[in-house]
Design a protein that fits this description.
40% helix, 9 helices, 353 residues, 12 strands, alpha+beta
Length: 353
Amino acid sequence: MARPILALTAAAAALALSLSGAARDHQSHHHKDQAMSDPTPYAFAIHGGAGTITRDKLTADLEADYRAKLGEALAAGQAVLADGGAATDAVIAAIQVMEDSPLFNAGRGAVYTAEGRNALDASIMDGRTLNAGAVADISRVKSPIALAARVMTDSPHVMLAGEGAEQFARDQGQEMVSPLYFYTERRFQQILQVRGEDKEAVLLDHDGDDRPSKYGTVGAVALDKHGNLAAGTSTGGMTNKMYGRIGDSPIIGAGTYANNASCAVSATGHGEYFIRATVARDICALMEYADLSLAEAADRMVMDKLVKMGGDGGIISVDHAGNVALVFNTPGMYRASVREGEDAIIGIYKDDD
């Protein structure tokens, strides 16, 4: 009888050991699940364009206006994130504040094309799903970023342009406006001045002269409490740009990109260079495949690759850990950022940080 009892005892011990291990594994998985369900500290950043932005080119009143509007836009997105809202919603909320302001080259502050019209572009990307939406060459939609979001969520496509995009906007119940809604005297005088000097000239938002040209593309990037990333960009493009010209802002991978595995990026600058260098996507790819930090990846693209190509501008970015990088190779960039539990930072010039 000894052998069976010994065998039973050994089997019981083995079973107990197995159950103990399973319990430990379950407890470990339970703790992991708890950790994953814990809220992620949010992080948020916005930009309003980069360029030759120096203290001698802004009056005290105008500088104050920019800082106030940047603060308002940042607060709009931050409120969404603080309430547990989605990164995409925070991006839209902030960008709409800047689209509604004539200070920036987006929405109501959009520049004029060579044809004397406003042609607006925008895009948004969800880092959780990698879904994206973009619109280009629209003139009758009040909020281009809101329409880009609808392309992402309510169409089978990524980009819609021109009349097709505007028809989609009407079908989706988006707010439509007269093209005159985008008229501002400052922008109208700007196109007259440029055309008077050189009919073929194309004026970038960040050209370094005394003309009223330092009003740029806007964008936002966010990490929400659920650990999801998003990026969005909206612009009026270049003053006196050719008919049909589309820059980097509505192009996923060039001016906008987001992936939960790495980061979210929104760009501003000379779009043709950002398209050729696929700046937004490459920053994320350098994190994913070269194991670079967000700051290292952003510096390599903006301060090295773009400079060597002859392109100027900047980016805002946030990674899946909540790190924020605001990098530009120009004298200034309208920008603001905040991380949960920290004070907001608003900057215009290089030395603001």
